[in-house]
What we know:
The structure is a homodimer.
Chain A: H1 9-17, E1 25-29, E2 42-43, E3 53-54, E4 58-61, E5 75-83, E6 97-101, E7 113-116, E8 121-125, E9 128-133, E10 143-144, E11 155-157, H2 165-173, E12 178-182, E13 186-191, E14 196-197, E15 208-209, H3 212-223, E16 226-232, H4 237-250, E17 253-257, H5 268-275, E18 278-281, E19 286-287, E20 293-297, E21 300-305, H6 309-327, E22 337-342, E23 346-347, E24 353-363, E25 366-371, H7 382-385, E26 388-392, E27 398-399, E28 404-409
Parallel strand pairs in A: 5-6, 13-16, 13-17, 14-15, 17-21, 19-24, 22-25
Antiparallel strand pairs in A: 1-12, 2-11, 3-10, 4-6, 4-7, 5-9, 8-9, 18-20, 20-21, 22-28, 23-27, 24-25, 24-26, 26-28
Helix pairs in contact in A: 1-6, 3-6
Amino acid sequence: MEERKPIDVEQAIHKIMERTKQGETEMVSIDEAMGRYLAEDVVADHPVPSFDRSSFDGFAIIAEDTTNASFQEPVTCKVVGRIGAGDVTDTIVQKGEAIRIMTGAQMPKGANAIVALEIAKEEQINDETWITVNRPIEKGTNVAFIGEDIQKDVVIVHKGRQIAAGELSILATFGYAKVKVYKRPIIGVFVTGTELLSVDEPLVPGKIRNSNSYMLLGQIASVGAIPKYYGILPDDYELCYTSVVQALEEVDYLVTTGGASVGDFDFVQDILHELQATVLFNKVAMRPGSVTTVATWKEKWIFGLSGNPAACYVGFELFARPVLKTALGAEMVHLPRSKAILEHDITMGNPFARFTRAKAEIRGSDIFVSSVGRDKSDIISALVEANAFLFIPARTKSISKGEEVTILWLDQGVERAIE
Amino acid sequence: MEERKPIDVEQAIHKIMERTKQGETEMVSIDEAMGRYLAEDVVADHPVPSFDRSSFDGFAIIAEDTTNASFQEPVTCKVVGRIGAGDVTDTIVQKGEAIRIMTGAQMPKGANAIVALEIAKEEQINDETWITVNRPIEKGTNVAFIGEDIQKDVVIVHKGRQIAAGELSILATFGYAKVKVYKRPIIGVFVTGTELLSVDEPLVPGKIRNSNSYMLLGQIASVGAIPKYYGILPDDYELCYTSVVQALEEVDYLVTTGGASVGDFDFVQDILHELQATVLFNKVAMRPGSVTTVATWKEKWIFGLSGNPAACYVGFELFARPVLKTALGAEMVHLPRSKAILEHDITMGNPFARFTRAKAEIRGSDIFVSSVGRDKSDIISALVEANAFLFIPARTKSISKGEEVTILWLDQGVERAIE
């Protein structure tokens, strides 16, 4: 076997990022748009409001009628009509008149202010309705004017934004019944390893249940891509090769896990060699996940991740996530990164960069972090306690409690950072 | 119309929380479990590792054989077998012997340490394979012992935890082919308002496109529940009443939006009255969202939210979210809350509690916040800029730049808090 030469994490990510590209786009119904990434700017097709409208339930009046209104000398206006939300009226408000109007309804011509329902004293005199106003109402009071919220042709949401509830509201407001989004890439997942049992098999000596594929399917779904599980690779090189090549005809991204250690039964390196794939790297100077391979072949990507659960998890988040997120057109392709205050001393035994599973906690307005459990990469219990990676740069000898360190936030990071 | 008496936000939430309860549970396949909430503790059905295993590719040896090994006087061991991952062997390692072993494979009897492949010098002598070790290897080196990661019968993940990638890995490890989770509640959505156009209709004077229903469908999906859209309520009380009653036969939760202002055309109050529903409150001393109604009827919930987009958004997050999240069995039912450092002065004009749409930013290890855009509740552009609510307690007169304030994090809060 060729000797693997480790490269730095930063260099590994750089090699990946210079080859990533955005995927194809498609039009989807607004009903299907939640969670997708916008492939176009959302532009206001009209100003908001699109007409001068009442912000309150009340009466549309001419402000100048009330200039001298006071408690002692109130002003009265005759109610000459009524406008429900969505209605329009041809009636023009004349001096001394008012029109009953609902929240959101279009202002009638002639009027320039709304006196709120609570302020206007309404009374019936014979068959007529009159209101009494006992204070001056300024011009424009309770009126939302055309374009006050959003001007026509303004970009309201930028391309690359993930569509959540607020974006859906904007899309609907501006008539985006269909939305241009990036296609969700499909990622094939292969697991290698004769030691693997399926989740419903009883445990037998020497074997473990296949857990990495479920973890990867979850990570892929979190990113917004579509996982496609290809099962456990056969323990035979030729069959293995054929399976991988067939999968690469169906998907643009392939992840393998397990067998990526330097064991004898690891076919991934040989397959990449036979495919004449471009191996960007096959070892990274980091823990966990040093035996991680990323290769491209034609326009396709192959991620050979370690079989070690923590290493597999880290490898996916650091290297596969930005490729998929870029394909998805996301604004932010990496895990969100911030600083945090370290809660304990750390002493490092080796010169590699480390991504320690960690628990970030927000207390007050400060972010704190402590590493979770023990520091061995085969500890799976740490996976559920962690909501962040604590990044320890290569060649760090020690870090003291209270120092600022870099953390990468995992999904649901904040929710799990607040008790 | 009855006068509505506003209650405090805290009181409103308290009234809700004392009536919430967890929903029914169901068994789902692990393949369908992502994002669901665990309705049972996940217990280790076996220790991890479940057997003493090698953490490295290398050779299983008897540590004591190497006690006197040195560069000058290396020790040699004869390789008597080989164990692939998943294999077991009957061969017992004897003094002076070694067995080639893969990462993750079960330790052979007799051996008590692994000498890593890189350290053992391998050579063929006649038909035999021998390794040379030139340093003492301590007992237990590179061996992961039974239960070292997880002890049998320990609770690994607690009930109420949302299932993400790490949890899937744990579930698979312990053979949870099926998982007990809470059923996803279905929430009906009605929109009221004759002023509403559908998203694909061209704008006409006095009307606006229906955007709140899309926003609510997004919010409901974010919470993990299932939205069911019932359309725009007819402009006729009897038809309205019948529609609501029919919907309440199908769903346990109903949200209405629009028409919840004090306009003439708001039937929701009348319907609740006719149903003899228990109205927990119909006005809250807060902005936006003061005209928010929450009622229960039999075992069902009705949320009458304001038609104003920002008020509708806030009303859902504050009052509907905890009810649905409790039904879903979530650990944390409210929006995550933390402190943040205010980036500008705030002066308040009225005594109500406020939930201002705000932008939280993480810089260094500190969280900062500033309010987004103008402070009127009909400004929809703020919905996409905000990743948090800035909470301003009732009767606050002013807050100065640099003071700590309370914020509630919205979905994707962290991702959008880091540039």
